[in-house]
Write a structure and sequence with these properties.
The chain is of the alpha/beta class. It is built from nine helices and eleven strands. The protein has two domains: about 40 residues; about 270 residues, Zn peptidases (Aminopeptidase, 3-Layer(aba) Sandwich). Helix 6 links the parallel strand 9 and strand 10.
Length: about 350
């Protein structure tokens, strides 16, 4: 009997040791799992894979030629010519299933007894939270209309200023309407009465601010019809030092798209285009990209500013090049673009 009790005690001791071993194993496994989970939580956000776009240069050329045709008479705000431009832009937005932001594409305002129209297309974000944050991609589509004739030509067609920027916004709207869904929402805006003192953008910026739109960035496009020479970037950013937009945009793009132009600072271009209206109302990064550097184009506000003076291949390449940066801005988890 004594041997039996000794035998049973040994069995209990063996079972206790085995149980402690299993507990250690389970604890170690749990520790490893927790460590793995912790690593997953604190690991840095993976780089957003940006789409590579190939745009149709023929479409760029066709849109540019329509907006600069003599039939539009220089697209002065309040004229029949800019009305034709507005109808044309609306038609392309509708054809590409881009919704109007308001009941119609038009945001109307008064200009010295006439009516001006901003045209606004809307691509809604897919994220249930981030879709309430907006990017505004903009350009002005008006110009100065008729001027003193040169060689019997009095129509200032405004190819570089700013049919070029308008075509860029149009192509970007078409692309993002069919691209993988963005998390944030985007407005594609064609502004009027820029040439009369930024009146269209002032009106829209105030309206959107009153409506409590959550604006993240305004990316404005102006005069991108010809390349700069001898630069290590494709376009410059006005108000370069106002924010980190250029640095982050180049990081997102994996190449140097945007740079600094001393002349832009000297002539205070930051305050001379429509971006400034959104900056004043919202106090967020709102800046303009351009490739006009005061040496590479001689026809500013002249009748010679025609479509055949512009470099379609460069325009198409630049529009393609800015897509990854815009796409990343629309999809980061936090607002990484900030004022300095």
């Amino acid at each position: 009997m004594r041997d039996f009790f000794i035998f049973m005690a040994m069995i209990k001791l063996t079972l206790r040791i085995a149980s402690l071993g299993l507990l250690f194993v389970f604890s170690a496994c749990n520790l490893t799992q927790n460590s793995t989970e912790e690593k997953q939580i604190i690991s840095p956000t993976q780089k957003i894979e940006t789409p590579k776009a190939t745009l149709n240069a023929s479409a760029v050329k066709e849109e540019l030629e329509f907006l600069t045709s003599n039939d539009l008479m220089g697209r002065n705000t309040g004229t029949d010519g800019i009305e034709k431009a507005a109808v044309y832009l609306e038609g392309i937005l509708k054809k590409n299933n881009i919704k109007p932001y308001y009941k119609t594409y038009r945001d109307s305002f008064e200009v010295k007894g006439a009516t001006g129209y901003n045209i606004i297309g809307f691509v809604e974000g897919a994220d249930p939270v981030l879709k309430n944050e907006f990017l505004i991609i903009s350009a002005h589509y008006d110009h100065i209309g008729l001027v003193s004739p040169i060689a019997n030509d009095s129509i200032a067609n405004g190819a570089n200023d700013n049919a070029a920027g308008s075509v860029a916004v149009l192509e970007l709207a078409k692309y993002f309407a069919t691209a993988p869904k963005n998390r944030r929402s985007m407005l594609f805006v064609f502004l009027s009465a820029e040439e009369k003192g930024l009146l269209g953008s002032k009106h829209l910026a105030k309206r959107l601010k009153d409506e409590k739109l959550d604006l993240y960035v305004n990316f404005n496009i102006e005069m991108i019809g010809v390349p700069m020479q001898g630069k290590d970037h494709k376009a410059y950013l006005t108000g370069f030092e106002e924010s980190n937009l250029a640095d982050k945009f180049n990081e997102y793009s994996d190449e140097k798209i945007l740079g600094f132009l001393p002349k832009a600072k000297e002539f205070d271009l930051f305050r001379r285009s429509d971006n400034y209206s959104f900056y004043k109302e919202f106090n967020v990064p709102a800046q303009t990209i351009s490739s006009f550097d005061f040496t590479n184009y001689s026809y500013y506000h002249q009748v010679q500013d025609e479509a055949d003076k512009l470099d379609i291949a460069f325009m198409t390449d630049l529009i393609e090049s800015i897509i990854p940066g815009i796409y990343t801005m629309a999809n980061t988890s936090t607002k990484e673009i900030k004022l300095n």
